[in-house]
Amino acid sequence: MIIAANFKTNHTRAATKAYLAKVTAYIAEAEISDEVMVFPPATALCRSEGDVTVGAQNAWPTDNGAYTGEIGTEQLDEFGIHTILIGHSERRHILGESQEVVAEKFAYFKALGFRIVYCIGEPLEVRDAGSETLMAYLAEQLEGIDLGYGNLVIAYEPVWAIGTGRVPSENEIELIHGALAKLTKAPLLYGGSVKVGNVAPILALKHVDGALVGSGALDPDDFCKMIATAKQINKQEV
C-alpha cells in the first residue's frame, strides 16, 4: 500500500524535520514495508529520510525561469526530489489550473521519470447529477494523461469530501475505484477527510491501494497509526 501525507500550507521547516524524524523512526521500529510519502510546503522541502519519500506539492514545468511564486526542477534537484502531486483539486478549483496546464505538467515530469501522484475528483453538484455525469467529469480530468505510465499513482479525492468530515460510502468509493481500475494498472489512492477513525475500512476495500491524507495526517502520531493500520490490513490479505 501507499500512505501519503499532504501538508498543504501547514508546518514549518522545523516542524517538518521533527515530523519526519518521528515517522522514519516508527517505520524502522515497526518494520513497515508499505510505501510512505510526505508532501511538505515548498519552504520545508528536504531530502527523503529513511524509508519516507519526500515529494513536492507543486512545481512549474520548467528547470528555472521567470515564474514568480513557482519552483522548478532546479529547486527540486537540490533536494533530490523526484515525486510530485499534480492535479490536486485545490490547484484546479482555487488556483485555476486548467486541464491543459495539468496535462502539460504531467507530460513534463513524466519525461523526467518522476513519481507522479495524479489527483482527480468531483464537486458535490457533479456527484448529485448522477453516476454517468460523475464518470464523464472524471474522464475529462484524465484527458492528456498517460494512464500506462509506469511511475503513476492516481488519487481519487472527491472535492466535497476534502476537509469537510464527509466521506463517500464504502460502496461509492469501491464503485469509483473499480471503474478506474479498468482504465489503468496504476495504484489507486483514496483521499478526502481520511482520518485515524475511518482509514481501516477504506484501506480494506478491494480497489483501494492506499490513502492520500490531508489534515488527518498533520499530527505524526496519527499518521503513524494510519501506517500501522495499512500494515495490519496487508497481513490480513496475505
UniProtKB/TrEMBL annotation:
Where, by residue number, is the active site?
88, 157
Chain residues that bind substrate? 6-8, 163, 193
User: Tell me, how does this one assemble?
Assistant: Homodimer.
Q: Identify the EC number(s).
A: 5.3.1.1
Question: Which keywords are on file for this protein?
Answer: Cytoplasm, Gluconeogenesis, Glycolysis, Isomerase
Reactions listed under catalytic activity: D-glyceraldehyde 3-phosphate = dihydroxyacetone phosphate
Query: What the protein does?
Result: Involved in the gluconeogenesis. Catalyzes stereospecifically the conversion of dihydroxyacetone phosphate (DHAP) to D-glyceraldehyde-3-phosphate (G3P).
Signal peptide limits: none
Q: Which domain of life is it from?
A: Bacteria
Family affiliation: Belongs to the triosephosphate isomerase family.
A Pfam match: TIM
Any single GO molecular-function term of the entry would be: triose-phosphate isomerase activity
Q: What is its main location?
A: cytoplasm
Q: Which organism is it from?
A: Sulfurimonas diazotrophicus
Q: Which InterPro entries match?
A: Aldolase_TIM, TIM_sf, TrioseP_Isoase_bac/euk, Triosephosphate_isomerase, Triosephosphate_isomerase_AS
Uppermost EC category: isomerase
Name by which UniProt lists this protein: Triosephosphate isomerase
Q: Which PANTHER family match?
A: TRIOSEPHOSPHATE ISOMERASE
Its subcellular locations are:
Cytoplasm
- Pathway it belongs to? Carbohydrate biosynthesis; gluconeogenesis; Carbohydrate degradation; glycolysis; D-glyceraldehyde 3-phosphate from glycerone phosphate: step 1/1
